TrEMBL record:
UniProtKB keywords: Hydrolase, Phosphoprotein, Protease, Ubl conjugation pathway
This protein's name: SJCHGC07341 protein
The family this protein is said to belong to: Belongs to the peptidase C48 family.
A molecular-function term among this protein's GO annotations: SUMO-specific endopeptidase activity
Lineage, top ranks: Eukaryota, Metazoa, Spiralia, Lophotrochozoa, Platyhelminthes
Domain Ubiquitin-like protease family profile: 1-81
InterPro entries: Papain-like_cys_pep_sf (IPR038765), Peptidase_C48_C (IPR003653), Sentrin-specific_protease (IPR051947)
Pfam families attached to this UniProt entry: Peptidase_C48 (PF02902)
UniProt record, GO biological process: protein desumoylation; proteolysis
Any one annotated GO CC term: nucleus
Length: 133
């Protein structure tokens, strides 16, 4: 089918705007190549990890407006990847459909949820320490 990628691909979700992603994909492919060569090539043979065997896409996804929310965006990308899976592995889908994957306000909510969870865990740990010295 025209425009559909039938080979394995790497999806690079980058929350920082205006970053060169081509070099990042190259590093990921090199890492996969080294891992294969080290762990699997003896038993499973030679396998190439390059742009001809593993495509790379960097979908247009919501981006952060500061330099401190990388981790929160990463967590939310993973969550969204499972809640709203990619429907079509096409360039058009990656460039247009995923830009509105989630509103930026969701990231603020995620930050608040993480904060509340950490406070809750801290409080529980303190209670357990005082109850069971």
């Amino acid at each position: 089918q025209r425009g559909v990628n039938a080979m394995p691909c790497v999806l690079l979700f980058d929350s920082l705007p205006c970053q060169s992603r081509v070099s990042n994909l190259h590093v990921i492919r090199n890492y996969l190549q080294v891992e294969w060569n080290t762990r699997r090539s003896v038993q499973d043979g030679v396998l190439r990890f390059d742009k001809d065997t593993i495509r790379g896409f960097s979908p247009r996804v919501p981006v952060q407006s500061n330099l401190v929310d990388c981790g929160i965006y990463l967590l939310h990308y993973v969550e969204m990847f499972f809640k709203k899976p990619v429907q079509s592995y096409t360039k058009d889908y990656f460039q247009h459909e995923m830009a509105g994957w989630f509103p930026e306000a969701t990231v603020s909510q995620k930050r608040a949820q993480i904060h509340d969870l950490l406070v809750s865990l801290r409080d529980r740990t303190l209670r357990e320490k005082t109850t069971n010295p």
